[in-house]
Specification:
- With 180 residues, the protein is an alpha+beta fold.
- It is built from eight helices and four strands.
- The chain has a four-stranded mixed β-sheet with strand order 2-1-3-4.
- A hairpin with a 2-residue loop joins strand 3 and strand 4.
- The N and C termini lie far apart (46 Å).
- The model has no long low-confidence stretch (mean pLDDT 92).
């Protein structure tokens, strides 16, 4: 249920932003707001606490965001607070991102590696993925020492696993079949 609700709210905000030709700016601002709530989870708790009255919550939202975000986004945050949906802000930001990326021809790619990729490796992988997908790539590098080496690439609903951990698991499985 939360996903459907989040998608509907995100779609509403996206349609307004698109109509006003501010979809990219709204995306950045919404991400910043979502990141703020992630950095300061107590602030989100205040806005979701039933014992705190709506006028106080709205006053707090205005104090933090008024003059710092686009008025449409401020109104969106006030509406979410009023409808008790502000706790879904992270999901809404993701849903907005998905809508924006889809229409802008942008593809989010995550590269999981044992150690951080350097700039040259990031650029090479970006270019490779742009050639494969035909889209502009937003690449995020996630470090996970358990992969041991190589790279696990997540793009859209696909996963390309070229890690040493995966190769060792495949080798173990083959050896298990030979021995059995």
């Amino acid at each position: 249920m939360a996903t459907v609700v989040s998608e509907r709210y995100a779609l509403s905000l996206y349609e307004v932003a698109k109509a006003e030709n501010i979809a990219p700016e709204m995306y950045e601002a919404l991400q910043t707001v979502s990141d703020l709530f992630e950095t300061y989870p107590d602030y989100l708790k205040v806005l979701t606490t039933p014992s705190i009255g709506l006028p106080d919550k709205q006053k707090t939202v205005r104090a933090v965001f008024e003059g710092r975000v686009h008025p449409y986004l401020l109104n969106f945050l006030l509406l979410l607070t009023e409808k008790r949906r502000i706790g879904l802000i992270h999901e809404m930001a993701e849903a907005y991102r998905d809508l924006y990326y889809l229409e802008a021809g942008i593809c989010a790619v995550t590269a999981v590696t044992a150690i951080p990729l350097d700039e040259a490796q990031m650029e090479k992988l970006k270019n490779k993925m742009a050639g494969v997908t035909g889209k502009q790539i937003v690449l995020k590098n996630q470090v996970d020492p358990s992969v041991l080496g190589g790279v696990l690439v997540r793009v859209e609903n696909k996963q390309i696993d070229d890690t040493i951990k995966n190769r060792l698991n495949e080798l173990t499985a083959r050896l298990g079949q030979i021995i059995a």
